Fold:
Amino acid sequence: MKIIDGKAISASVRKELTAKAAEFENKYGRKVGLAVVKVGANPASEVYVRNKIRACEEVGVKSFSYNFPEDAEESALLELIDELNGSENVDGILVQLPLPSGLNEKKILARIAPEKDADGFHVINAGGIMLGLPCTKPCTPAGIIELIKSTGETISGKNAVVIGRSNIVGKPCAMLLLAENATVTVCHSKTADLASHTLNADILVAAVGIKQFVKGEMIKPGAIVIDVGMNRSEGKLYGDVDFESASERAAYITPVPGGVGPMTVTMLLKNTVESAFRCKEN
Ligand code: NAP
Structure:
């Protein structure tokens, strides 16, 4: 069994992005810019936002932070997004989710100009993935594809099973695997006899949100296993896959932490740098 080292793969992509960001600055006289919008003080969001800002610094992308209180008015957020959409210095905009319950998440995300949608959540980008058009891909699924490709195994013709059908992970991941010519099955909480599907998976993506949900006996020997889960329990982070038993069957597996997580942040930077060039060159 080989570990897919998300940290190492991420570091090599970030090296390329550092060069690209420097090229942009030389050519256009300013840094690539990412606006990071946070509302309230959700502790997990605080950590994610801090990591994203640190990652920006690492590759030479300028971050602009905007922090709103928990009881922020929706109109104030929409006003800021309008301003950022028109800003010459901002190439990517991300609104950290989840938003406090009083705010209309769909409306706020839809307000971001699709070409500055660093997270790839805008309906135009979601539609682009569906139709196979050039678009900004959501970070976690895009990172998953990179991790699978890093094994050197071909995706084309393989049976891929995705457990989870969320709009930010499961569904777009299934679409990206389909675009790579995998034969894709999407499983969810109503799937009957889940193991009969997973045992057929050459590529298994677990995006369930339940600690150690996928056991070794559910995995086809020799499979590539991508564990998207980030489940905190007693101060520790656990994946959706039971790493120990899964390691005995899988040929390749991502660890948690150090697998999908670092790639997600790296793909956010990649989206931002690509948006910056696209905006100038089109
Ligand atoms: P989500 O929106 O809660 O979706 C979970 C999916 O799992 C749903 O489609 C649900 O099915 C399915 N599911 C739940 N119980 C199941 C069961 N018993 N059998 C089969 N399927 C089941 O979660 P998400 O946002 O996609 O995130 C999934 C996990 O990935 C979480 O742990 C999250 O923290 C993690 N995550 C990690 C990153 C990263 O960067 N590493 C990024 C995003 C998310 P239904 O649709 O039928 O309810």
Summary: Residues 29-113 form a domain with the Rossmann fold fold (CATH 3.40.50.10860).
